[in-house]
């Protein structure tokens, strides 16, 4: 880490000044046509490609610092940019440009009995704060999604990616300036210490929403201390319930895909609940296929790594899985209610009544019947872009695309109507 | 006030136990058919009518206590129930029964390229906490709206209405029990001191949303200290901008209606911004008509009560209004940005471009053109029932009806789909 160059009081002042400038910029963005926003997104993609050299140079500084600090290779890989990855980031902006613009959509409307014409119109949220970890691509993705939905982006990236993020944001700001738009529509907050996060999440009245993307600890800290509205994302303690009427070949495929496709992401399966009625057949098959895939099994049965409370409550995000035998659908739902994080829950069954009951009773952002938990994803759902996966019930639930970064406004046109007493 | 019968530690335990029971009850409510919910609403209406005597007796205790405490008559009037008012409360429940049930609505759906059938379905939020002031009718209204949208209601009413609320909730709980449903779907939290509010807004994981209804102080305290998601309601520092191209007869009517119809409610107008271009004609007319209606004018012009910063920033909720001359639309929008609470803002003009620009630029739940601010109201908008008016941008904005008390769930039906790496 670099030595802090600012005092805590400075950080608060800096963050509030940035948020104020972000709010002012958001008022300009709210009035832009779709054509204009799309042009800026393509301009930014062009600028990133043209300046790949300077981006890679800045990134090399971050990577060198991480290597010096002995950071593990998987984290360095997330941090590292290449010419290919920069191309991918630019292509992402063009993809956002191609998406429909939600702003200005009329959601509903009617003429009141007194003749007033009423419509509910989609408008930007205003200032969107993002707190995220090492991947520098998130910096550009968040800018693109925020801009297309008419919002300013106030970005608090990881200090480990400070040089990369600074260079990327410089290029984005130059693009905005060249397009005659306020550069403050995208800003990077100081990342030397946690205090900038604290000031961001308490800038009520300046920041309209903060979306934390990262580990459970970050999300909990943000949600518990924020006075700004937040959207909780990404903690996924996902379960697969293998019902008594499950096709066991399918069960093997789905458990393996849900667990091993990308163990470090939030939609990976962390616990398998096996119905007692089929456990005698299912458990040995499952054990064998999981072990062949290099997955370590935690649980209460012989031959498993003995499970503690954390095995049921926490995400592994690794090639580990917890396995539990349950007495039936009621016990499966109870277990999920108790330990689940309301992200993605799946049932494997050929029984229609069981599938229906599970989807009705389980309280989660996504409930899958005979499908991999890995499908909970904005791209898979066809959103074209994703800002995160909400696990809360208010405002947005599940993968969030452009419409989830908007609010609404009622507009009424009258000709002098007064309301009777 | 009655003497506290519980210690602070007790209150925390009580609130958490009530919230836990509320959560359990909410799982039952989530699975009820519309028919069953409607039957309970009619049962409750019948029970309230049949037990009007005991309701009025309990209410008489509250009223007597308030009179003894020297409470002002307007507050006592809000607290007081009569046979007519009980009839109105019961009729409100039947009206909610007649509304369409939002639960189970399919908001969007599609078949993914791999054959998975995906749909986004409306589901209840779970446990809805309400913090509100004297009117006992809110107790029953909140129960009705929560039940119809499949939610448990955790109610924290005013201690001044403690006896009335206790009797109303007893009747509602008896109705639920008689219908074979969990009585804990509606519960009254202790109201002896503020600590039950604190515990309610920090019962994260048990309570899904808290909606404060009351003065700006209550709402601020709830929003700033909550870890549970909240919906900010009801603070309305509403403006009317009389544009240079306004019809001044219409302006007089709209200002008078917006200010004097019911000065104590949130959609009342608190400031009039008069365009400099017409001030010479408009101001004397406005002054005369406001004074005739008994309204005290605050402002910087001769003959007005000199205005302080609070005159621009706070709600009067009385027969007072602030009047300011502005240089044009830009200055009007800037003033509203600075002092408005994003509730309802109005422009009076015959100029299409000015009307369009005002509706585009002003950031509020409702923007009116040539209509009274008093129209921002769930009943006026045709929602049939209203739980409050949200002035925040996340989740719900403006009057909230049944759909605003719901969340969504993605349900995917597959036949063994796995996601490619």
UniProtKB/TrEMBL annotation, chains A, B:
Its EC number is 1.2.1.41. NCBIfam families: PRK00197.1 (NF001221), proA (TIGR00407). GO terms for molecular function: glutamate-5-semialdehyde dehydrogenase activity; NADP binding. CDD domains: ALDH_F18-19_ProA-GPR. Pathway: Amino-acid biosynthesis; L-proline biosynthesis; L-glutamate 5-semialdehyde from L-glutamate: step 2/2. It catalyses: L-glutamate 5-semialdehyde + phosphate + NADP(+) = L-glutamyl 5-phosphate + NADPH + H(+). Keywords: Amino-acid biosynthesis, Cytoplasm, NADP, Oxidoreductase, Proline biosynthesis. It comes from Williamsia limnetica. Residues 9-293 form the Aldehyde dehydrogenase domain. One of its GO terms (cellular component) is cytoplasm. It is an enzyme of class 1 (oxidoreductase). Belongs to the gamma-glutamyl phosphate reductase family. Catalyzes the NADPH-dependent reduction of L-glutamate 5-phosphate into L-glutamate 5-semialdehyde and phosphate. The product spontaneously undergoes cyclization to form 1-pyrroline-5-carboxylate. PANTHER family: DELTA-1-PYRROLINE-5-CARBOXYLATE SYNTHASE (PTHR11063:SF8), GLUTAMATE SEMIALDEHYDE DEHYDROGENASE (PTHR11063). It is found in: Cytoplasm. One of its GO terms (biological process) is L-proline biosynthetic process. This is Gamma-glutamyl phosphate reductase. The keyword Cytoplasm applies. Its main location: cytoplasm.
């Amino acid at each position: 880490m670099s030595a802090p160059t600012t005092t805590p009081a400075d950080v608060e002042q800096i963050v509030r000044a940035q948020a104020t400038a972000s709010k002012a910029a958001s008022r300009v963005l709210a009035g832009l046509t779709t054509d204009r926003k799309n042009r800026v997104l393509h301009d930014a993609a062009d600028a990133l490609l043209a300046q790949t050299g300077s981006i890679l140079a800045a990134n090399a500084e971050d990577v060198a610092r991480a290597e010096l600090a002995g950071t593990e290779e998987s984290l360095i890989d997330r941090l590292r940019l290449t010419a290919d990855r920069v191309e991918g980031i630019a292509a992402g902006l063009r993809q956002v440009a191609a998406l429909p613009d939600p702003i200005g959509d009329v959601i509903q409307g009617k003429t009141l009995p007194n003749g007033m014409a009423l419509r509910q119109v989609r408008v930007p949220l205003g200032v969107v704060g993002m707190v995220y970890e090492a991947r520098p691509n998130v910096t550009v993705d968040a800018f693109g999604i925020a801009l297309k939905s008419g919002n300013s982006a106030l970005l608090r990236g990881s200090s480990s990616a400070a040089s990369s993020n600074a260079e990327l944001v410089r290029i984005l700001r130059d693009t905005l300036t060249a397009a005659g738009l306020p550069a403050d529509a995208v800003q990077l907050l100081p990342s030397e210490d946690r205090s900038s996060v604290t000031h961001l999440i308490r800038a009520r009245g300046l920041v309209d929403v903060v979306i934390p993307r990262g580990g459970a600890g970050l999300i909990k800290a943000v949600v518990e201390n924020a006075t700004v509205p937040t959207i909780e994302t990404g903690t996924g303690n996902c379960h697969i319930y293998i019902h008594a009427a499950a096709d066991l070949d399918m069960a093997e495929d789905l458990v393996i895909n849900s667990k091993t496709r990308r163990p470090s992401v939030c939609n990976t399966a962390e616990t398998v609940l096996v119905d007692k009625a089929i456990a005698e057949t299912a458990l040995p098959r499952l054990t064998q296929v999981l072990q062949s895939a290099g997955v370590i099994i935690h649980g209460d049965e012989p031959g498993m790594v003995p499970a503690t409370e954390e095995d049921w409550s926490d995400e592994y995000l690794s090639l580990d899985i917890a396995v539990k035998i349950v007495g039936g659908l009621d016990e499966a739902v109870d277990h999920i209610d108790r330990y689940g994080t309301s992200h993605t829950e799946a049932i494997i069954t050929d029984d229609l009544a069981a599938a229906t009951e599970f989807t009705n009773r389980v309280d989660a952002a996504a409930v899958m019947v005979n499908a991999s938990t890995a499908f909970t994803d904005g791209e898979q759902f066809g959103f074209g872009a994703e800002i995160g996966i909400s696990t809360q019930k208010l405002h947005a639930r599940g993968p969030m695309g452009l419409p989830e970064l908007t609010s609404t406004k009622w507009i009424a046109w009258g000709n002098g109507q007064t309301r009777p007493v």
